[in-house]
Amino acid sequence: MKINKNYKIELILILATLMLALLVIGYYRPLVISPINNFVTQNNSVVFSFEKANYILIDDNSEFSSPERIDVKNDLIVNFEPGVYYWKIGGIVESETRKLIIQSRLDLQFREQENNFEVVNTGNEKLSVEVYNQNKISGNVILDVGEGTNLSGEKYLGRKYE
Amino acid sequence: MNNKIKLLFLILFICIFISNVTSLGITPGRTTLDFKPGLEKNVEVTVINSQKTDIEVFITTRGELASSIVLNQKSLKMSSSEEEKNIGFSIKLPQTLSPGLHVAEVVVSQKMRGTSKGDNTIGAEIAVATQVAVYVPYPGQYLDAQLLVSGDEKKKTFTVSMVNRGTEEIKNIKAEITVYDLVGNEVKKMNTNTIKLGPSEKGEIFSTWSVNVPNGKYVAKAVIDFDSKQIKVEKEFEVGEFVLDLLQIFVKDFKLGEIAKFNLVVKNKWNEPITRAYAEMRVFDKEMKEIADVKSATYDIPPETQTDMVYYWDTKNIAEGLYNANVILFYEGKKTQQDLKLDVKSNKIDVIGLGYAVSSESSSSKNGLVTILTIIIVFLILLNVLWFLVLRKRKMRKH
């Protein structure tokens, strides 16, 4: 009878320890909200939403061999170049790893000017723009993301800059 | 009536503006394939009609591998309600190709409407190209490498990102990275980890550096050793940010109504000189009306040096009290602003607000809770062990 009582106390102690341990891990486990795993976007700016974290690790490989660490407690916006990225957040423990794909988007915008065109790179990749006159290449300009320039030509061909 | 006219003008303006803007996009910008003899692959790309207008685009191929591409369609119509539309093409690679990179392009073009400018009519064609890049492996070992530098002014990570473009596995890849300052003095030497890469595999080797040098520009040079061969890559990088640090502002020997001499202590933390730097201070009254705008002379500040910049403020007709002010430092095409308050008294001016009051969410309370919970858990575990031992002893005594 006494042994049974002892076992009961033992059981209560073990359960209490386990529950407390789970409570601590559960409470302090970082909560990853967005973006979802394998998120694909053409937008360079990505909003990371999470809770209970102290930092975010971002790398271009899932082993996180050379991660970019940003110390942050709440949501943040990170600007990326097109590519595949892996990320996780960490606090007392680390979250699961999620994958993020920034797809390249080439986009050329032309605004008609007085005697020429303003060519603007509205995509998310640096562009090489060839200018043609009378079916012959007459120039080449490199446009950063968001950059524009005035050009005069009959044809403009934009491609990803190497 | 007035509102109606305004609305009409707005609509007219929007119509004119829209008609003068044309936009064409494509995604992705590049599709990469590893060469296999006779490889056949269907590729889909998306044409983007960002301006959401009725357009017709024409699709053509060009480049070295243009003849290997078969287009599913040669033109595409998109209405103003369609922002994106997919187009497909297939690629059939030849049986042999020389080692290296081979590219084909699928070009999407749109003819823009010609507009009259006096006697001339301007018309143009815009086009964007998506590339199909085919990598043919080099016989033996061939490594493509790129050096990347990341981190902040306290810690830098040097990453050599590599692709094995050869047909053979590379068993031992490591690098020695040396950091030089702008005059070529060696600042730091370090070694990376070692990895191996199979054909077409990508990988990284890296090394970290606890930065202990002044802010400025540096060059990292990596000598990559792979199975007794060597390649070199280098990258220029910066430590810290190119800023002129405003350390202190003080006014000495001041009497209200006279000219106040402001001393600005600034430090050039960069490893290059800053030339023709100057300071400007603007003072505002309670209604935020500007009451003074004063400038210093220009200064040349050598690297890693502290300098006093001086400017003067005539306090004639200025009453005692608290004034809003801002100090702007102009240097090398940059400007940094510091907002201040000037507490003007009869015999002194106190400058309030320089420096940063760092307030952060107290993590100590959270950490304290964790410590308490950890102590409780450890205590409970010990109690478990103790209880178990006591229980065992009692059981043994009974037996």
What is the number of independent domains of chain A? 2
Return Rg of chain A in Å: 27 Å
Name the beta content range of chain B: over 45%
Q: What oligomeric arrangement do these chains adopt?
A: heterodimer
Question: Looking at the structure, what is the overall shape of chain A?
Answer: rod-shaped
**Order of helix and strand elements from N to C terminus of chain B:** HEEEEEEEEEEEEEEEEEEEEEEEEEEEEH
CATH-defined architecture of the largest domain in chain A: Sandwich
The spatial strand order of the largest sheet of chain A comes to: 2-8-7-4-5
Largest interface: A-B, 46 and 53 residues
pLDDT below 50 for ≥5 consecutive residues: which ranges of chain A? Answer: none
Tell me the major beta sheet of chain B: 6 strands, antiparallel
Q: Give the CA-CA distance, first to last residue of chain A.
A: 81 Å
The end-to-end span of chain B amounts to 107 Å
Mind telling me the CATH class of the largest domain in chain B? Answer: Mainly Beta
Order of helices and strands of chain A: HEEEEEEEEEEEEEE
Count of extended strands of chain B: 28
Based on Cα principal axes, name the global outline of chain B: extended
CATH architecture of the largest domain in chain B: Sandwich
